[in-house]
Amino acid sequence: MKIFKSILFALLLAAGMNLGGCKDPKNPYGLDIVSTREAYLKSIAEDENNRLIDLEQYIPGVVLDIRYADTNNFTHKKIYTQPKAFLRKPAADSLLKIQRLLAEKGLGIKIYDAYRPYAGTLYFYDVYPDTTFVAAPWKGSIHNRGCAVDLSLINLTTGEELLMPTPFDDFSPAASHNYMELDSVKLANRATLFNIMTLNGFTFYEHEWWHYNIKGRDKFKLMDISFEDLSEVKVK
Ligand SMILES: [Zn+2]
Q: In angstroms, what is the span from residue 226 Cα to ligand 1's centroid?
């Protein structure tokens, strides 16, 4: 009977905690998120691969078009305070190699988005609650792990983006890799991006031609560290 009462008490306590309004608004689903600079520095001390690398400094010639640092995105609001792109060390290394390989063909990469603080994922789902195109905040996004990049290809000489099936963040069937009702140029450009990314450490996302994840992403934690705080952590 005593054990039974203890179990009942524990259940009531758990229910009370869920309903009692003690949720952290920055982490309402109670996820394991690295949210302080100290915790981030500790993770780097444990494994250098946890470092988020500033791609603009790391990849010569990379072009950034960080749409969430401007109003030219599906929320029509400025989400980021700075137009920055960070990825974990293994992803940054792969992208550096990809940029070099593309340069041999007169091409380069343009980045729309990379690491996204978890606060951005919470906001996106409020604005667009469709988990095909926006990450479920109760799981977090691979962008929050610093393991996903949204990108396109440019002509290195002109700086112009190659023709792709849709604009970035076009939430339509034409954004899918399975969509074939496109002219041959768009199909070829999508395939060029697909091939170079998947041959060099990334996996693709079926519904978005622009989104790629680095392999082994699950070993990296979700993060909610601002770009400002990341910029202050110097690269070795
Ligand atoms: Zn993405």
A: 18
